[in-house]
């Protein structure tokens, strides 16, 4: 079930009526049933897998919570890691590693006959796997206690707003909120509603409007001029941002209407002037997960410079593979790992040359921001391309510098619309820091009405309503 589908617009009000009409365990049951209906709408068979994952981690969590012997606790932690990552590997990565192994043998003249698994990758499996893994790891580290209620834990795992594309909500943040019934409050409706509306603007108006230009360029880059390909890459940077942050806005906004607080998942990432800052602003729930459960356990920056660089590369390579079972995603992660390593090396030289005076220079920071955005866009080529050959064709087409004048832009009407939408988005995000629309809507009814009417008008007149899936549903 997509947020931008007619069936969801029928589902949501019915769910909210049942949700706010109930209390206690019944409300939790309503949340669970509603979440399973939402998730099972794609394929009812997916429910068996999420239920299995829920049961495994609920049981292991109880055992971890009651065990005192360190060796026993370590065994239960390994049981959680092996079961969760084993399921993820079987459904998402088995065929990728199998094909890579076959190709490796073929490259040296040997033929390997390995089996394949013909299965559909369940929607959102990477998201809820990381969410349940963080639960058992936190219990092992004694950061939280095991949840005694299976119903409450099942709601934590499957809560539909963030189930299939995040944000990745941790048990320490969400489970305590499920212990108290949240009343229907006007304040929550306003703040949640503004975020939901902005999410639909990002998805239906901006991301889906940019998609046709991008799809044509990536499908046949050899037939496109260099300036068209450059625009396509820039458009994709904003398409994936608007598509994914739009989903996050809708999910966080819906949770807010229900009285729950989810952490922010994006904070204007393309305003970053360093790669570390970019990852503090982009997909925050994943980057913080990788930091806390992978980078720091590997040693972080505590074991010398060389080990720090290795840890950064490993973390980003695994982060790339998390996104998809393809070498293009691995290269995307590797590029970001390389960026972070080079940033650390260059930062050390900058400190020696001038330190804070250079870093605080507005022209220097602007130049850094342009450099960061350009290299992030270069990495996005591998993320978007369907194959390594497609990514190489895009890069080759860009750097042959054929047709670099504005008149050489192909599909000019769509291109002009895309540029206008991106400039409007950048202006709105730059102004959002001092306008603070959610806060203004709470204190000014006139501003609230004007804000909602404006966003509704933009969605109706400029939105694309073709039921297109969110990009991150494939992960």
Give me the secondary-structure topology.
Blueprint: H1 6-20, H2 24-40, H3 46-66, H4 70-107, H5 125-140, H6 150-158, H7 171-174, H8 186-219, H9 226-257, H10 275-281, H11 284-298, H12 305-323, H13 327-353, H14 356-359, H15 362-384, H16 388-399, H17 412-435, H18 437-443, H19 445-462
Descriptive notes:
With 475 residues, the chain is an all-alpha fold. The chain has 2 domains: 6-181, no CATH class; 187-474, no CATH class. It is 72% helix and 0% strand. It contains 19 helices and no strands. It has helices at residues 6-20, 24-40, 46-66, 70-107, 125-140, 150-158, 171-174, 186-219, 226-257, 275-281, 284-298, 305-323, 327-353, 356-359, 362-384, 388-399, 412-435, 437-443, 445-462. Helix 11 (284-298) crosses helix 12 (305-323). It is globular and about 65 Å long. The two termini are 16 Å apart. The mean pLDDT is 87.
Shape: globular
Distance between the termini: 16 Å
Reported for the largest beta sheet, the result is: none
**Helix fraction by DSSP (H/I, runs of at least 4):** over 70%
Give the total of domains.
2
**Count of helix runs:** 19
Average pLDDT value? 87
The gyration radius over C-alpha positions equals: 23 Å
Tell me the total number of β-strands.
0
Which structural class best describes the helix and strand composition? mainly alpha
Order of helical and strand elements: HHHHHHHHHHHHHHHHHHH
Low-pLDDT segments, ≥5 res: none
Strand content: under 5%
